[in-house]
Amino acid sequence: HPNCGNARGSITVTAVNTGDEYTMDNSNFQSNPVFGNMASGNYNLRTRNNRGCVSQPSGATVNPQPPTPAAPGLTTVHPTCSNSKGSIIILSSLTGIDYTLDNVNFQTATTFGNLNSGSYNVRARNGYGCVSNGTGANINPQPPVPATPSVSAAHPTCSNSKGSITVSGTVTGL
């Protein structure tokens, strides 16, 4: 039968007798019991023996090619100042579909968590074993945490009822 990567199948005669020939169209006989490169559909197989007698037809079916799932839609959650890890969330969860980042380890859960920054390729696999094209996802690096500033306070005095706070240090990106 066809598979994920091939839309064509084959039909093989299993009860083979020496000298028998086989046909799918009742006119072109062949000695090879294998009919390859067959499109999906229903076929009638006949056998002709070495005396020229032709059998009644025997039905054979080549199933359609199994579907390949669509590449998954997804969103990413990037690291924050307080969490160095990110996540990839698959937006559609379909019954019978599992997901992978490495084409080896598949999971039915629609979230890949605790991911380091970097590039990922998410693929979906259906119950036939067909794997989708990948959807790329990038997890950004954790944003830098600014340095702790130096703070000094000037307290109110008898002659000045107001105090002040002075922040010093190099602060960038705020």
Main features:
4-stranded antiparallel beta sheet; 174 residues; 14 strands; 3-stranded antiparallel beta sheet; mainly beta; single chain
Mean pLDDT: 92
The arrangement of helices and strands along the chain is EEEEEEEEEEEEEE
Secondary-structure class: mainly beta
Query: Which range does the strand content fall in?
Result: 35-45%
**Order of strands across the widest beta sheet?**
9-8-11-12
Number of separate helices: 0
Q: Tell me the overall shape.
A: rod-shaped
Description of the molecule:
The chain is mainly beta and 174 residues long. It is 0% helix and 39% strand. A hairpin with an 8-residue loop joins strand 6 and strand 7. It is rod-shaped and about 125 Å long. The model has no long low-confidence stretch (mean pLDDT 92).
